[in-house]
Protein backbone atom coordinates (compact mmCIF):
# COMPACT_ATOMS: atom_id res chain seq x y z
CA UNK A 1 0.00 0.00 0.00
CA UNK A 2 1.42 3.39 -0.84
CA UNK A 3 1.67 5.96 1.90
CA UNK A 4 -1.02 8.59 2.01
CA UNK A 5 -1.36 11.86 3.87
CA UNK A 6 -4.38 13.50 5.45
CA UNK A 7 -4.84 15.54 2.26
CA UNK A 8 -5.53 12.29 0.37
CA UNK A 9 -8.52 11.37 2.57
CA UNK A 10 -11.97 11.82 1.04
CA UNK A 11 -14.96 11.27 3.30
CA UNK A 12 -17.61 8.90 1.96
CA UNK A 13 -21.17 7.97 2.85
CA UNK A 14 -21.78 4.68 0.99
CA UNK A 15 -22.31 2.39 3.98
CA UNK A 16 -24.31 4.90 6.00
CA UNK A 17 -26.57 5.54 3.00
CA UNK A 18 -27.10 1.81 2.46
CA UNK A 19 -27.27 0.50 6.04
CA UNK A 20 -27.55 3.42 8.47
CA UNK A 21 -25.38 3.77 11.58
CA UNK A 22 -25.59 0.11 12.63
CA UNK A 23 -23.52 -2.47 10.78
CA UNK A 24 -24.14 -6.15 11.53
CA UNK A 25 -21.16 -8.46 11.06
CA UNK A 26 -20.78 -12.15 11.85
CA UNK A 27 -18.06 -13.59 14.07
CA UNK A 28 -16.26 -16.94 13.75
CA UNK A 29 -19.21 -18.74 15.37
CA UNK A 30 -21.64 -17.13 12.88
CA UNK A 31 -23.14 -14.99 15.67
CA UNK A 32 -24.30 -11.52 14.65
CA UNK A 33 -22.37 -8.64 16.18
CA UNK A 34 -23.60 -5.04 15.96
CA UNK A 35 -21.08 -2.29 15.26
CA UNK A 36 -21.63 1.46 15.11
CA UNK A 37 -20.30 3.11 11.98
CA UNK A 38 -18.01 5.94 13.05
CA UNK A 39 -16.85 7.12 9.64
CA UNK A 40 -15.93 5.94 6.19
CA UNK A 41 -13.37 7.40 3.85
CA UNK A 42 -11.51 6.79 0.64
CA UNK A 43 -7.76 6.66 0.04
CA UNK A 44 -6.93 6.47 -3.64
CA UNK A 45 -9.43 4.02 -5.10
CA UNK A 46 -9.95 2.09 -1.84
CA UNK A 47 -12.68 2.76 0.73
CA UNK A 48 -12.38 2.10 4.48
CA UNK A 49 -14.90 1.93 7.31
CA UNK A 50 -14.15 2.70 10.95
CA UNK A 51 -16.55 0.90 13.29
CA UNK A 52 -16.80 0.21 17.02
CA UNK A 53 -18.67 -2.51 18.89
CA UNK A 54 -22.09 -1.34 20.00
CA UNK A 55 -21.65 -2.03 23.71
CA UNK A 56 -20.89 0.05 26.81
CA UNK A 57 -17.29 -1.13 27.22
CA UNK A 58 -16.30 -1.07 23.57
CA UNK A 59 -12.60 -1.20 22.91
CA UNK A 60 -10.72 0.56 20.14
CA UNK A 61 -12.39 1.16 16.79
CA UNK A 62 -11.82 -1.42 14.07
CA UNK A 63 -10.98 -0.60 10.47
CA UNK A 64 -12.25 -2.60 7.50
CA UNK A 65 -11.77 -2.31 3.75
CA UNK A 66 -15.00 -1.60 1.84
CA UNK A 67 -15.47 -3.77 -1.24
CA UNK A 68 -18.33 -4.49 -3.62
CA UNK A 69 -19.48 -8.07 -4.22
CA UNK A 70 -20.17 -9.50 -7.66
CA UNK A 71 -23.86 -8.86 -6.91
CA UNK A 72 -23.19 -5.18 -6.23
CA UNK A 73 -23.56 -5.31 -2.43
CA UNK A 74 -21.14 -3.49 -0.14
CA UNK A 75 -18.99 -5.76 2.00
CA UNK A 76 -16.37 -5.27 4.71
CA UNK A 77 -13.06 -7.13 4.64
CA UNK A 78 -10.36 -7.37 7.26
CA UNK A 79 -7.03 -5.79 6.39
CA UNK A 80 -3.49 -6.97 7.08
CA UNK A 81 -1.28 -5.44 9.75
CA UNK A 82 0.69 -3.16 7.42
CA UNK A 83 -2.42 -1.75 5.78
CA UNK A 84 -4.07 -1.36 9.21
CA UNK A 85 -1.04 0.56 10.52
CA UNK A 86 -1.11 3.04 7.62
CA UNK A 87 -4.88 3.54 7.63
CA UNK A 88 -5.17 3.78 11.43
CA UNK A 89 -2.46 6.46 11.54
CA UNK A 90 -4.44 8.54 9.04
CA UNK A 91 -7.64 7.96 11.00
CA UNK A 92 -5.88 9.16 14.17
CA UNK A 93 -4.75 12.28 12.30
CA UNK A 94 -8.34 12.86 11.15
CA UNK A 95 -9.65 12.57 14.70
CA UNK A 96 -6.95 14.45 16.55
CA UNK A 97 -6.01 17.12 14.01
CA UNK A 98 -7.03 20.70 14.78
CA UNK A 99 -8.74 21.11 11.41
CA UNK A 100 -10.48 17.74 11.53
CA UNK A 101 -13.45 17.18 9.25
CA UNK A 102 -15.03 14.50 11.49
Describe this protein with a few key phrases.
6 strands; DUF1292 domain-containing protein; UPF0473; 2 helices; 102 residues; alpha+beta; 22% helix; 6-stranded antiparallel β-sheet
Structure, explained:
The chain is of the alpha+beta class. The chain has one domain (6-96). The chain has two helices and six strands; from the N terminus they run βαβββββα. The protein has helices at residues 14-19, 81-96, and strands spanning 9-11, 22-26, 32-43, 46-53, 62-68, 74-77. Strands 1, 2, 3, 4, 5 and 6 form a six-stranded antiparallel sheet that branches. The mean pLDDT is 88. Pfam families: DUF1292. This is DUF1292 domain-containing protein.
Q: How do the helices and strands line up, and which of them pair or pack?
A:
Layout: E1 9-11, H1 14-19, E2 22-26, E3 32-43, E4 46-53, E5 62-68, E6 74-77, H2 81-96
Antiparallel strand pairs: 1-3, 2-3, 3-4, 4-5, 5-6
What's the order of the H and E elements?
Answer: EHEEEEEH
Distance between the termini: 24 Å
Largest sheet, if any? 6 strands, antiparallel
Structural class: alpha+beta
Low-confidence stretches: none
Helicity, in percent? 10-25%
Could you state the oligomeric state of the chains shown? single chain
Q: Please work out how many helical segments DSSP would assign.
A: 2
Indicate the mean pLDDT: 88
Compact description:
This protein has two helices and six strands; from the N terminus they run βαβββββα. It is α+β, with helices and mostly antiparallel strands and 102 residues long.
Amino acid sequence: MCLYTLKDVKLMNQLRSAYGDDIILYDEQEQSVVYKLITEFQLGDQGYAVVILDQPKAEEPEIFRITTSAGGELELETIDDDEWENVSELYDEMVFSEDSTL
